[in-house]
UniProtKB/TrEMBL annotation:
One of its GO terms (cellular component) is membrane. Gene3D superfamilies: alpha/beta hydrolase (3.40.50.1820). GO terms for molecular function: monoacylglycerol lipase activity. Keywords: Hydrolase. Residues 59-290 form the AB hydrolase-1 domain. One of its GO terms (biological process) is acylglycerol catabolic process. Pfam families: Abhydrolase_6. InterPro entries: AB_hydrolase_1, AB_hydrolase_fold, AB_hydrolase_sf. It comes from the Bacteria. This is Alpha/beta hydrolase.
Length: 305
C-alpha cells in the first residue's frame, strides 16, 4: 500500500487522539504503577502490579508489532496479588521512545530489553511474549541463562512455517495488515489479528486506536523493515537445553501460520505446545481466561531453575 498523501496526513494529524486519555484511565482501572528508565538512549516505560519477592520470579510481558503494554489488559487482573507482573512497552512502541537512527532488529531489541531488566532491578523472570515480543523474548532467554526461569511464546514472529523456508531470505508478507495507513487498513488490521472475521471489538478498537496507529505508521514501517532484515533470528536461540518453553498458538492465525509449531516440535522437543482452537493471532485478548490458565499452570510447574 502506498504512503498516505500529504492532505490525508494533515487531516489525520488534526483528528483528536483518544488513546492517551484512555491509556491513563486503563492504568487506574488496572491499579498498576507506571515506571520509566533510560536504556540505550530510549526511555522505556512499563506497568507493574504486585510486589517483588526474592523467592518468586517476576512475570515479564512483551507485546507485538504496532501494539503496546496495554495489550495485556485482559490478563493483568487474573494474576494473584502475590505475583509480581510487569508489562513493558518495547522501544519504538507505546510510551517508550522511538529513534529515527536506531536499529530495531530482533537482536538489538533483545539486547535493550536485557539491559532494561537490569536497570529495572529485575532478577529471575518468566518471559512471556506475543508475536514480535515472543521473538524478542526468545533471544532474551538465550542471553540470560538461568535468569530466564521460563519462556512462553504466543504466535511468535520469526519462526519458519515449513521445512522448505530459506532462513537466509526474508519472508513474503503483506506488511499493510499490521501497518495500516488509512482507516480501512486500521479496520482490516483489527480483524485480521483475530480469527479474520469482523467483530464488534474490532470496530471499537478502530475508533479508539486508529488515530494513534496512523500517526505511527512511519516508525512502524521502520521497525518492520529492521525485523525482516534478519527475519529468523529467534531460531538461533531455540535449543534443546534452553529454559522450559511453552508454545501457545491460535489455529486460525492469519499472521503467523499455525504450522510454525512444527518447528518447535522438531527443534525443541521439550516444549509444551498448546494449539488453541478457534483462536487467531492474540490468544490473550481473544480468550484471556483459557490462555492465562495455560500460562498459570506452566509457570506454577517452573518456579525456579
Amino acid at each position: 500500500m502506498s504512503a498516505a498523501t500529504p492532505i490525508v496526513t494533515t487531516v489525520q494529524n488534526r483528528l483528536p487522539n483518544p488513546w492517551p486519555v484512555a491509556r491513563t484511565g486503563h492504568r487506574w482501572l488496572q491499579r498498576a504503577r507506571r515506571h520509566s528508565v533510560m536504556v540505550d538512549e530510549h526511555r522505556i516505560v512499563w506497568l507493574e502490579r504486585g510486589r517483588r519477592q526474592s523467592h518468586k520470579p517476576s512475570v515479564v510481558l512483551l507485546h507485538g508489532l504496532a501494539a503496546m503494554k496495554e495489550n495485556w489488559s485482559a490478563w493483568l487482573p487474573l494474576f494473584t496479588k502475590d505475583q509480581h507482573v510487569v508489562a513493558v512497552d518495547i522501544p519504538g512502541f507505546g510510551e517508550s521512545d522511538y529513534r529515527v537512527g536506531a536499529s530495531y532488529r530482533y537482536r538489538d531489541q533483545a539486547e535493550r530489553m536485557v539491559q532494561w531488566l537490569g536497570a529495572a532491578g529485575l532478577g529471575q523472570v518468566h518471559l512471556v511474549g506475543s508475536s514480535m515480543g515472543a521473538a524478542v523474548a526468545t533471544l532474551m532467554a538465550g542471553r540470560m541463562g538461568e535468569r530466564a526461569v521460563s519462556l512462553t511464546v504466543m504466535n511468535s514472529a520469526g519462526i519458519p512455517a515449513h521445512e522448505r523456508v530459506d532462513l537466509n531470505r526474508p519472508p513474503v508478507f503483506d506488511s499493510s495488515i499490521l501497518i495500516p495507513e488509512d482507516w480501512s487498513g486500521v479496520y482490516r488490521m483489527f480483524n485480521n489479528v483475530g480469527s479474520g472475521k469482523p467483530t464488534l471489538s474490532g470496530m471499537a478498537m478502530t475508533g479508539l486506536l486508529g488515530v494513534d496507529l496512523l500517526r505511527r505508521a512511519g516508525q512502524n514501517r521502520h521497525v518492520f523493515s529492521d525485523m525482516v532484515a534478519d527475519p529468523y533470528a529467534p531460531t538461533t536461540a531455540l535449543t534443546k537445553d534452553m529454559a522450559p518453553l511453552l508454545v501457545i498458538w491460535g489455529d486460525r492465525d492469519q499472521i503467523t501460520p499455525p504450522s510454525c509449531v512444527d518447528f518447535y516440535r522438531k527443534t525443541t522437543p521439550h516444549a509444551e505446545v498448546h494449539m488453541m482452537r478457534g483462536i487467531g493471532h492474540l490468544p490473550m485478548l481473544e480468550n484471556p481466561r483459557r490462555s492465562f490458565g495455560i500460562l498459570r499452570d506452566f509457570i506454577g510447574r517452573h518456579s525456579s531453575r
